[in-house]
Amino acid sequence: MTKYTDIGVEKHGHVGLIEIRKPPLNFFDVSLINQIADALEEFDKDIEIRASVLAAQGKAFCAGADFSDPKRQEQEASAQKDPAANLPINHLYVQAVRIFRNKKPVVAAIHGAAIGGGLGLAVSADFRVTCPEARFAANFTKLGFHPGFGLTATLPELVGKNNAELIFYTSRRVTGEEATRMGLANLCVPQDQVRAEAPASPTASWPPPTTNSPSRPSCARRRISRKASRRRPNGGWRISREDKTPPLAPPPFSHRSRIYPTSTN
C-alpha cells in the first residue's frame, strides 16, 4: 500500500478507513486531496473492500483550504503576471474530480466543523454520520468568491434549492442536528460515537461487487473526467458516461447520483 504523509489508511474487515491527519483544523491543500483520491483508488482495486470511511483527527473534520500553502501563493503570484497561468484551484479540482470518480460507497464521519471546501469534501461522500457539535458552513460568499468543490451542484440535491441558497447567501453555520433534519447528514449520534457508527452503515454489509452490480448506491456509473477532447472553450469540464454516449453538460462536479442529460441536437 502507498505511503501517505497527511492521511492514515487502514483496513478493518471489508471497510477501508481514510483518516485526515492534519490536526487541529485539517486544512486541505492539493497534496491532501491527491492523497485521499489515491487511497480511494486503492480501495477500488481491493476486492475485499466494500465501502470506505472518511474521518479526521483533531478538532475539525476539515476547515477548508489552506491559503498559506506556499505552492498556492507561488502560483497566484505567477497568475498576476500571466492571466493564462494555471491557478492552484485548477490543480486542486483535477485531484478533487478523482474523489467523485471512485466506485465504492463512502461514508464521511464528521465529528467537528466542515467549512468551505471541507463541506464540499464531506458532501462528496455518499453518506454522512455527524454529531450535535459538528458545524457545516459554506463561507465562500463571506470571503468574496464563488462556492467551490462542486457545492453549487451537490448541496441543492441534498438539502433542496432553498436551503442551499440560505447556506450559500448567509454563510451561516448549520449544527449537526439541523444538518440531519434538512438532509445534509444521514445520522446524528453523540460525538464519541461518530467514528464507530460510520462503518456500521448498511453499505459496509453489501456483497462483493461483480461486473454486473452497481458501483455506487445510486447505480450511477457516471464518471467526471478531464479529457482534452471534451474540454469546453472556456476551459471548463465535460461529463460523460463510461459507455461513450453523448457528453452531458451539467455544472462541474455534478453529484454522481444525479446527472441529467441535455439535448444533443
Q: Can you give keywords for this protein?
A:
265 residues, 31% helix, six-stranded mixed beta sheet, alpha/beta, 14% strand, 2-enoyl-CoA Hydratase, Chain A, domain 1, 9 strands, disordered C terminus
Ordered list of secondary-structure elements with their pairings:
Elements (H helix, E strand, L loop, with lengths): L6 E6 L2 E6 L9 H16 L5 E6 L13 H12 L6 H14 L4 E5 L2 E3 L1 H7 L3 E4 L4 E3 L2 H4 L7 H9 L1 H10 L3 E2 H7 L4 E2 L5 H4 L68
Parallel strand pairs: 2-3, 3-4, 4-6, 5-7, 6-9
Antiparallel strand pairs: 1-2, 7-8
Biggest sheet, spatial arrangement of strands: 1-2-3-4-6-9
Quickly name the level 1 CATH class.
Alpha Beta
What's the CATH superfamily, by name?
2-enoyl-CoA Hydratase, Chain A, domain 1
Counting DSSP E segments of at least 2 residues, the number of strands comes to: 9
How many structural units, i.e. domains? 1
